[in-house]
Amino acid sequence: MREIKTLADLKKKQEEMRSRIKLRDNAENPESLVQVKVAMATCGIASGAKEVMEYFVDELDKRSIRAIVTQTGCMGYCYAEPTVEITLPGQDPIVFGYVTVKKAGDIIEHYIKEGELVDGIIPQNYNTIKS
Amino acid sequence: MSKYKMHILVCAGTGCSSSESNLVCEILIDEVERKGLGGDVQIIRTGCFGFCEKGPIVKVLPDNTFYTNVKPADAKEIVDEHIIKGRKVYRLLYTDPESGEHLPDSKHMGFYQKQIRVALRNCGTIDPENIDEAIARDAYQALGKVITEMGPDVAINEIKSSGLRGRGGAGFPTGLKWEIARKNDADQKYVVCNADEGDPGAFMDRSILEGDPHSIIEAMAICGYCIGASKGLVYIRAEYPLAVKRLKIAIAQAHEYGLLGDNIFGTDFSFDISLKYGAGAFVCGEETALIHSMEGKRGEPTNKPPFPAQSGYLGKPTNVNNVETFANIPVIILKGAEWFSSIGTEKSKGTKVFALAGKINNVGLIEIPMGITLREIIYEIGGGIKNGKKFKAVQTGGPSGGCLTEKHLDIPIDYESLTASGSMMGSGGMIVLDEDDCMVSVAKFYLEFIVDESCGKCAPCRIGNKRMHETLKRITDGKGTQEDLDKLKNLSYVIKDTSLCGLGQTSPNPVLSTMEHFMDEYNEHVIDKKCRAGQCSNLLYYVISEEECIGCMACLRACPTHAISGEKKEAHVINQEICIKCGACMEKCKFDAITLRSDYPRVSVPIV
Questions:
Q1: CB B52 within 8 Å of CB B17
Q2: Can you tell me the ipTM of this complex?
Q3: Closest by alpha carbon to B521, among B421, B403, B604?
Q4: What are phi and psi of B248, to 5 degrees?
Q5: Spatial separation of the C-alpha atoms in residues B417 and B408, rounded to whole Å
Q6: Which residues of A sit within 8 Å Cβ distance of B?
Q7: B255-260: average pLDDT
Q8: Count of A–B CB contacts within 8 Å?
Q9: Cβ of B136 and A20 within 8 Å?
Q10: Residue B183 pLDDT more than 70?
Q11: pLDDT band (50, 70, 90) for residue B151
């Protein structure tokens, strides 16, 4: 079976395949992209972090926002799970608490796209030991 | 759209494979399946990341975590900790040799910071056995552009104005080579990819073929279209089984997609590629010898002209390019000659891949823009000399090249400056030598290689190099004379001037260049009978330490040649003229007073 008969076929194939390695392309310069870290420890997963993470992955892709979605360990805010830390390029990370799927939609719509803060920000109340 | 949230890239190049990266990969796959994460985590075997020193390499995306020295036993921990809990496995992270800190991702590693990856663009990113991933990273787009938009003349002009020069060593302008091959009319022409990489320590061609075979297939097809050839041949050594396997898979996949075969992209251009195996002879990297070997004849070079572009494989016009040269072609077509020529120096454009080997911290494969200095390569990318030793020289260009020493550290790396300083670009092997390396032995090593690899067709190379090797052996054995040094130099020039092909003409280079920069070491070997690096075992001496020796006379009694003298309770002395270096004295000494040294106190000792 000869799949690629014209250059247009090749371009189409490339479009199809691009999503396959988009994650790898993005990883080459993470600083320039939106980084979303979902706390996926026991407490987080029990409160639905897995669904939230899936939502972020799908939704950001659907809206063609170039972002890196990763999971991280427990951030310590177990009372506010699921918690999500979002770093916009060149800005300090901000942690959101009680992130349900609906809330995740708000965060994408307002914070990630517009840069407006939404409810549920957990202020940073600790210092990291600098070695 | 794939739903994978994480990608784990495992290096499956020859280097990492030999340290069990395949097992690591299988355990990772098993473990991910067992934890029910098969749909979330994709595990990909990629080509070489270049950081071979610390292989096997495992890279976790999207957070770009760079794990080094991953053993099969570590695979489960990576899945349990990193993949499931999101905690990096710190002990496997790369440690910065200067600060001692763990670096979480490859962006911050000095090794990668100065590199620009053009020829190696897909190595370590895609699965080389999957054409779809290659296509996603622009594979075959350049071929499409050349065939449907540019046409052969425009494409050749693009290559010409990019300034790309042959990466196999001599640096002949690639565009010009193509143009000559295009102008020669014939019913059949051939495109040959020279994958007969023979320099000791060089493995860039292998890594490109293993990590991104489609880039070579595409470039060969482009070349075929431009010069009017419908047949491509890859001359590859059978010692590269993994590269052969991946190339075969890639060719089959390209056929399946219609990117090779008849009527490519719906035009009347047809192109096919087959493999020809070489037995791994160094001389077959020379294009006329290569062509003879492909024809089934002895791998011997012939006089040029006729050049292969006029009469090559089976007497037809043939264009031979090296693997790395081909790997640059698609990028030049897609990004334009201007982009390519913006990298590098005035006469050497683009990047060059080097294989760093020897006494350097980061052994591996690097790709650097032309024009950066040797110092940057060795100290910033290479991470300096192993064990904090002192840099002595770097051997570039393999057996045809020469040595660059400390005073060359700040010259820019390009074709002209390397030649001007007595070495050459070669295919890109860089062997770093430190204070523990004996330069005479290094020259001897390369001569030994040449003696093995000389095809034997012309006398200067066949006999001359043999004599050179014998002379060097005499010198390292401590039997050399002043006359030997003069002979060595004369013979070198004769071989250089009278040999038939490039192999012979360049074979004395290691000797000439070490003699130029390290004449004092040659003199020491010949006059003082001393090897300062302590590499030549015949030039090591058993010496009794005056402080340690208590005068027990045990060694004196053990010495079969009565070379040791000394009174009871006084330090003994070994007469080096009589000593046969049997080591019996050292064995007998209970006080560790006898050591092997590269020099001994030169006082006349009365013979007992």
A1: no
A2: 0.78
A3: B403
A4: -65, -45
A5: 10
A6: 1-7, 10-11, 13-14, 17-21, 23-24, 26-30, 37, 39-41, 53, 57, 61, 68-73, 131
A7: 94
A8: 105
A9: yes
A10: yes
A11: very high
pLDDT at B1 over 60: no
- Mean pLDDT of the B362-390 span: 92
Three-class DSSP category at B495? helix
Cα–Cα distance measured from residue B327 to residue B117, given in angstroms and rounded to the nearest whole number: 11
Average pLDDT over residues A109-118: 85
Specify the pTM: 0.87
Question: 3-state DSSP call for residue B93?
Answer: strand
- In three-state secondary structure terms, B158 is helix
Q: Which of A30, A68, A71 sits opposite B86 (nearest CB)?
A: A71
Query: Which DSSP state fits A90?
Result: T
Q: CA torsion sign, B322 to B325 to B329 to B331?
A: positive
Q: CA quadruple B83, B85, B91, B93: dihedral positive or negative?
A: positive
* Residue A48 Cα distances to A100, B62, B116, B381, B405, angstroms: 7, 22, 43, 45, 62
Specify whether the CB–CB gap between B60 and B8 falls below 8 A.
Answer: yes
Please state the length of chain B.
Answer: 608
Q: Which helix (H) or strand (E) holds B33?
A: helix B21-34
Longest dimension (CA), chain A: 61
Quote the CA–CA distance of B317 and B29 in Å, as a whole number. Answer: 49
- What phi, psi does B401 have (nearest 5°)? -95, -155
Q: Which of A63-67, B139-143, B349-353, B473-477 has the lowest mean pLDDT?
A: A63-67
User: What's the token pair of residue B180?
Assistant: 């000559």
Torsion of CA B355, B360, B362, B365, to 10 degrees: 0
Omega before B369 cis (within 30°)?
no
pLDDT tens-digit series, residues B478-530: 999 999 999 999 999 999 999 998 889 999 999 999 999 999 999 999 998 89
Q: Do B589 and B542 meet the contact criterion of CB atoms below 8 Å apart?
A: no
What gap in Å lies between CA B288 and CA B280, rounded to an integer?
15
Q: Domains (ranges, CATH) in chain B?
A: 6-113 (3.40.30.10), 132-340 (3.40.50.11540), 351-434 (3.10.20.600), 439-528 (1.20.1440.230), 540-597 (3.30.70.20)
Query: Is-contact B534 B540, C-beta < 8 A?
Result: yes
Residue B143 has a CB neighbour count (10 Å cut-off) of 29
Measure Cα distances from B282 to B187, B463, B491 in Å: 32, 17, 22
| pLDDT score of B86 more than 80 | no
Question: What are the residue ranges spanned by the domains of chain A?
Answer: 34-122
Hunting for tokens 């994480």 — which residue is that? B6
A72–B86 C-beta distance less than 8 A: yes
What integer is the mean pLDDT of B254-269?
93
CA distance B542 to B576: 8
Give the chain A residue whose CA is nearest to the CA of B83: A71
| Run of H or E including B391 | strand B391-396
| CA B584/CA B571 separation, integer angstroms | 17
Distance separating the N- and C-terminal Cα atoms of chain A: 60
CATH class of A34-122: alpha beta
- Residue A131 predicted with pLDDT over 80: no
DSSP β-ladder status, B429-434 and B391-396: antiparallel
Token digits of residue B214: 């489609």
> Looking at the partner chain, which of A24, A57, A131 has a beta carbon nearest the beta carbon of B5?
A57
DSSP state of B258: T
Distance CA B233, CA B187 (A): 17
Compute the distance between CA of residue B381 and CA of residue B369 in angstroms, rounded to an integer.
Answer: 12
